C-alpha cells in the first residue's frame, strides 16, 4: 500500500493541516487551535478540495468548542451555534462545507441539556465519522471508476481531486492510486489549473510521490493533446452537484468538458454523495466563489498584468449535465446524469 499524506488530522489540542499553499516546495503543517485560524486556513486554501474542507470545518468546530468547556451551558450553546455559522462563511461553493456543518448542528441539537464535555465528545465523534465516511466513499469511487477504465491508458485531470483534497485516495485520482497498488499503471496528464496551479503544484506532487507517470500541461494545451489522440478519458472532481446533475468544479473544467465532447472522449465527474446538493435545482443557482484579483495578476511573486487593468477571477465553473458521460459516486455510477439519475442515487436514503 502507498504511504499517503493526511491533509487534516485531529491531534486533541490542535488540528494538524497540511499547508497546501507551500507545496510543492515545502511539506509543512499548520497547528490550528481556534475557529478563526481554521476559517483563515480554509479561505487561504491551506486546506482545500470539497471533502477536505468539510472535514476541516467539522474538526474546526471541535477545537473551538474545547475552549468553551468551562462556560455555562447557555454560553457554550451560543458559542457553538456562532462557530458553525462562522465557519460556513469561509468559502461558498463546495457544498461539503455546509453538509458537514449541518451534521455538526444536528449533533448539537440532539445534545440539548447535556454537559459541555459530553457535547464536545459527541461533536468529535461526528467529525471522526465524517472523515471515515469520506475515506470509504473515496475507495468506492475508485473501484467504480476502475470498472469504466478497462482498456484505457491515459487520463487527463483538472485541478486536484486527490488524497490531499479528501482522505487518502481522493475522488478523481482514486482509480489511479488504487490502480497503482494493484499494478495497473495509468499515464496522467495534469492540467496546470490557472490561476493557483492546483494541477501543477498538487496533483503532480501527489502522483509523483505515489510513483504514477504524470505529465503537467498548461490548461490551453488540452485541446491539442485530445486532437492528437493522447487522451483516452477525462476524470475530474466536483465541488457541488445540483439536483439535475450540473456540476461545479475548478474554473476551466467546463472548457475541458466541451473539448472532450468535441473529440468524443468520455468525461467523468467523480464525487461523494456529500457533494450533491439536492436543494439547488440546477447549476445556475450554484454560488460561484469570486477570489481576489491578486491571484491572477500576481500569483506567484511576479506581476503579469499591467496595473489598473480589470481582472475577473471566478474560482469555479459549472459543467452542464449534458456534457457529463457519467457521474461516479460511492453508491454507483450515473450514466448521462440528470434529475432522475441523481434522485435514484438516494432512493429514499440521504447521504448518511
Ligand atoms: C475531491 S476535490 C474536488 C474539488 O473540490 C476540486 O476539484 C476543486 O475544484 C478544488 O478547488 P479548490 O479551490 O482548490 O478548493
Automatic annotation (TrEMBL):
<dbReference type="InterPro" id="IPR037171">
    <property type="entry name" value="NagB/RpiA_transferase-like"/>
</dbReference>
<feature type="site" description="Transition state stabilizer">
    <location>
        <position position="159"/>
    </location>
</feature>
<keyword id="KW-0413">Isomerase</keyword>
<protein>
    <recommendedName>
        <fullName>Methylthioribose-1-phosphate isomerase</fullName>
        <ecNumber>5.3.1.23</ecNumber>
    </recommendedName>
</protein>
<keyword id="KW-0486">Methionine biosynthesis</keyword>
<dbReference type="InterPro" id="IPR042529">
    <property type="entry name" value="IF_2B-like_C"/>
</dbReference>
<dbReference type="InterPro" id="IPR027363">
    <property type="entry name" value="M1Pi_N"/>
</dbReference>
<feature type="binding site">
    <location>
        <position position="198"/>
    </location>
    <ligand>
        <name>substrate</name>
    </ligand>
</feature>
<keyword id="KW-0028">Amino-acid biosynthesis</keyword>
<comment type="function">
    <text>Catalyzes the interconversion of methylthioribose-1-phosphate (MTR-1-P) into methylthioribulose-1-phosphate (MTRu-1-P).</text>
</comment>
<dbReference type="InterPro" id="IPR000649">
    <property type="entry name" value="IF-2B-related"/>
</dbReference>
<dbReference type="GO" id="GO:0046523">
    <property type="term" value="F:S-methyl-5-thioribose-1-phosphate isomerase activity"/>
</dbReference>
<comment type="similarity">
    <text>Belongs to the EIF-2B alpha/beta/delta subunits family. MtnA subfamily.</text>
</comment>
<feature type="binding site">
    <location>
        <position position="91"/>
    </location>
    <ligand>
        <name>substrate</name>
    </ligand>
</feature>
<dbReference type="InterPro" id="IPR011559">
    <property type="entry name" value="Initiation_fac_2B_a/b/d"/>
</dbReference>
<comment type="pathway">
    <text>Amino-acid biosynthesis; L-methionine biosynthesis via salvage pathway; L-methionine from S-methyl-5-thio-alpha-D-ribose 1-phosphate: step 1/6.</text>
</comment>
<dbReference type="InterPro" id="IPR005251">
    <property type="entry name" value="IF-M1Pi"/>
</dbReference>
<dbReference type="Pfam" id="PF01008">
    <property type="entry name" value="IF-2B"/>
</dbReference>
<feature type="binding site">
    <location>
        <begin position="48"/>
        <end position="50"/>
    </location>
    <ligand>
        <name>substrate</name>
    </ligand>
</feature>
<feature type="binding site">
    <location>
        <begin position="249"/>
        <end position="250"/>
    </location>
    <ligand>
        <name>substrate</name>
    </ligand>
</feature>
<feature type="active site" description="Proton donor">
    <location>
        <position position="239"/>
    </location>
</feature>
